[in-house]
Amino acid sequence: MKEIGIYIHIPFCASKCAYCDFISFDKKEEYISKYIESLKSEIETSEILNNSKVNTIYIGGGTPSYIDSKYIVQIIDIIKEKCDLSSTEITIEMNPGTVTQDKLQDYYNAGINRVSIGLQTTNDNLLKTIGRIHNCEQFLNTYKLARQVRI
Ligand code: SF4
Asked: Does domain 3-148 have CATH number 3.20.20.70?
């Protein structure tokens, strides 16, 4: 069985940070469900995924935690149908200010076992200047929520 790693890009954000060069878009919510459907279709028809053992899945962005968690669950469920995820490290990028306990619980139930929480700086004034949507306290609250659901 071949071993692979998977990167999944979610190119949507609550707002665009001043310094950002990533492929990400704000105010494009109308495209989220269409994008997810296309992504699911690509996963379903991908031959390279068939009968693979997946070492890592990294769900990055953009802000994956910005979109409804049902989409993240759907994506992981489709990969599970095609691949062995029995010992996979599954990571999701999160932005403070976009995460709820319900979302985190959905991530955990789907098999996500690692999170990357974007902070950039603990200086609230600098966070505001660079266009981040959160402050340092929200980062700490997000971290605590993630620990509560044992991610
Ligand atoms: S949250 Fe990340 S991906 Fe989104 S605009 Fe800011 S830096 Fe770019």
From this structure: yes
